Queue: 4 jobs
Job 1
Amino acid sequence: MDKDALTIGDLGAATDTKVETIRYYERIGIMPAPKRSDGNYRMYRAEHVEQLRFIRRSRALGFNLDQVRELLSLSDNRNRSCEAVDEIARENLADIDRKMGDLKVLRRELAALLHQCQRGAIAECRIIKAIARK
């Protein structure tokens, strides 16, 4: 094996990514499959580390896999206007705002149910009854 190559375990450790996640990203084409050694081991390079860190950070910022794929594609063309990137980021921000609104509604509903709790028997539990109605 090439002395500069990383194993999949090394790549995972360098990026705090599970091996199965790396394999999944390769299967769906968000990461290119690396070259293989004569023993059929994956051989990763520094560019794989950079790309996987980009993917992980994008996911941490809430971008879905299709958006990450598009951001990766756009990042390959350094001279292009960043307007397309801005649009993807705006879409993601709007989605985050929507989710935050949904979570606020859920929080109010659950807080109201807890406030009604009389700490009696499960048969009379208002939380269980409210869940069963939905």
Job 2
Amino acid sequence: MIMKKNFILISLYCLLLSGCRLIPGDLQLIAETPLIEIPDEGDLAPTPSLISPTIPVSTATLTIIPTQTQTPTQTTTPTKTLPPTKTATPTRTATPTKTSTPMPFQTQSESPVYIENFAHPEAACNWMGVAGQVFGTKGDPILNLVITVKGELNQTNVDFVGVTGIPQADIYGPGGYEIVLADVPLPSDQNLTIQVFDLAGQPLSEAVPFSTYTACTKNLIIINFQTK
């Protein structure tokens, strides 16, 4: 029994060494190759392992922090800009001309008339004046109207006043007037104006210009007014 057990062990050993065979009969072990001396366990140096040492891997988990997602700002849609409307240039409004109300009295078509002073024969040529009458619509003379003569005479400003219907002017007809301008005939070229007013000072005619002369035959100027 012990022999059989030893045979089995030897067989296994030979198989491990791959160089032994069993001889039947006397159960001798013949080695075809020299026996390998197995060193003691203490003399064996550790065989370097071909496996690289395991590099420890950190078990710490990598936490990925999600980046904050920015909410896109709302983009304002540009409003459509309307082209500027063309501003019409205001047209210049013409200032209405003042319409003058026609005066009730105008000079007669033949006025003025230049004649020699007959109303004051004693003064003769040492006198110059303007005289006449104011007539209504029916040709009748009108009394108590104011007659003015204004302007420049002999380089002097003058402002004379007369009234129709005074007794001193009856020589020129009913309702006549007379205004003495100078004690000698003097020349003037449209520098004087004559105008009719009522007693309240309201004008009844336009200011009509007239001239004067140095001639003694023209020192009396007759100017009549009439209404239409």
Job 3
Amino acid sequence: MSNDTPSTMAKKMDFTHIANQFKSLDRSQPANWPIYPQLLLYAAVAVGVAAAGWFLYLKTVDEDLKSAVAQEETLKAAYLDKYAQAVNLDALEEQRKQVQRYVIQLEKQLPNKAEMDALLSDINQAGLGRGLQFDLFKPGTIVAKQYYAELPIDVKVSGRYHDIGQFAADIASLSRIVTLNNISLTPEKDGSLSLATTVKTFRYLDPDEVQSQPKQ
């Protein structure tokens, strides 16, 4: 004889009733399913949606974290660079002053437009002072650069070897920047030498000349 109480038998019947609802379900018609399968389906869908949303949230958080880490590295590198500059500030300031002194020294070696005639006269006197004969002294066309102008001068002098050498040394020792280019030495029949060269001098551009230069 069974010892099941009425309440136990009712529970067994309920379980059997629920279990029977999951049998022979038409998967193409979930709307027609009994209540318990529908509830289970809704719960599964809700769990799936929640899991997908949580996954997307975690993915966004992970991307934000990676971006923050990359930004931290960039800021750290910038900080170290600024720190190194701050530590070496005195040395950098001294270097800047040295460069400024060097630039000022070079500036003094470049005449302005008004001083060019005096420089040309100095070049001519350097040759005459060594007893050289000028066969050619022809200033060419001024070539304007961005901040300075270059003036080539075709020069041809003749004289003794020693005097020509001293003339070249005198040109190099001028207070202004003067260079000898395309040097050609030719012996003459009387035993002297002929020096043909292009002397290049440089000068500052006046402010209006700088303004007229095309932008680089």
Job 4
Amino acid sequence: MRVLLTGATGFLGRAVARRLVDAGHAVAAFVREPDAELNTLGVDQVQGDLASLDAVVSAATGCEAVVHCAARVGSFARIDDYYDINVRGTDHVLAACEIADVRRLVFTSCAGVVIEHGDLNGVNESQRVAQHAPTPYLASKALAERHVLAANGPGLATIALRPHLLWGPGDTVWLPKLASLARAGRLRLFGETGKKIDHCYIDNAADAHLAALERLEPGAAISGKPYFITQGEPGPAEGFINGLLRAAGYPIEMRRLSATMTRTLAATAGARRTFGGADPLLTPDTVALFRQATWFNIAAARRDLGYSPRVGTAEGLARLSAHLARERMRGR
């Protein structure tokens, strides 16, 4: 089928584009600027902005489905920016589906929409969406997810996928920050020891999007539902961080910040970024993700989507290590 893909130049969007092309789908990427890698994949590129409903409608016309990965991420945007892109942009996608008679919409949400206060140990999709999200980004994603699932009906089938802590080759979020701090000797762990988290290797998240797309249609059992997408291998947060460090060629980190220092650094992250330039690792968003247990039951995704993490964590770390070694060789 012909699929409109938003966010195709992002970390997840690129992986989804590759997976859709490999599966034989015709992909039209909705982009702000032309992208060389997407050209190499043979993806059609339609320039536009989610802020323009006309542009989204034009891009969606002639498509049978939309995979909506685009989002404003990060910790330092204005609340209006998160709302304009993550909520209003999603509303434009929903409107475009109705106007252009698109009958399938796969929406990339995030597991963080259920994070509020307290540990989340193996919760499933019955866990309520947070009433008071800890950060503007998570609040905007929660609101966008509500709009998408509420739009499900006879004319448009919708589904929300909730991957958690994406990582792997091409990561522009976690690993660059960890590596920068490790090089400078300034990396510290934080949060309570032993709190379990789960995460998601990038190719597994892309597989889940393909699986959802190919099973979704009006009236399908999966329509109108959210699904958690992870490795299904929960473990201590420090194990995840040190696994990434080892893959990047850095020693593991055992030093840990106190709870008071963690709160102080997170609260002052914006000011430190303004005066120091680089994006700090310790931000309100990071603390929200790592201060408590956040791992999820993926039985529903296994049952309904046929989702099974194709790349285990150990294999994913080996792939990441090999990728980074090749990148270092190219840089010499």
